Amino acid sequence: MDCNEIKEYIARVPEDTDYVNQPPHYTLGDIECIDYIKDVLTEEEYRGYLRGCMIKYQHRLMLKGSPQFNAEKIGWYCNKLITEL
Predict the structure, then answer these.
(1) Residue 76's domain spans which residues?
(2) Is residue 19 part of a domain?
(3) Residue 55 falls within a domain, yes or no?
(4) Is residue 1 part of a domain?
(5) Do residues 74 and 62 make contact, with C-beta atoms less than 8 angstroms apart?
(6) Which of 12, 13, 17, 66 has the fewest beta carbons under 10 Å from its own?
(7) Is residue 85 within 8 Å of 61, Cβ to Cβ?
(8) Tens of pLDDT along the chain (85 residues)?
(9) 13 within domain boundaries
(10) CB neighbour list of residue 51: distance below 8 Å, 6 or more residues apart
């Protein structure tokens, strides 16, 4: 996809889009970004990636954007990690 196609895609995203569980910018191609990351990493690396994402959202919880959104993302990555364990 080129830049214009991506901009057009984002412009068509519905207002009620769930940015915690299915952010449209991570589902642009044939495979969701998180699935691709899981495919290319070892199990240990993927678990570390999930833990790192939890730490990132915890660190920025009250500092960037919506604290509720950041807390929901912590939970989302935590649920992924639980599934992996």
Answers:
(1) 31-85
(2) no
(3) yes
(4) no
(5) no
(6) 12
(7) no
(8) 567 766 676 677 777 777 777 776 666 667 888 999 999 999 999 999 999 999 999 999 999 889 999 999 999 999 999 999 9
(9) no
(10) 77, 81
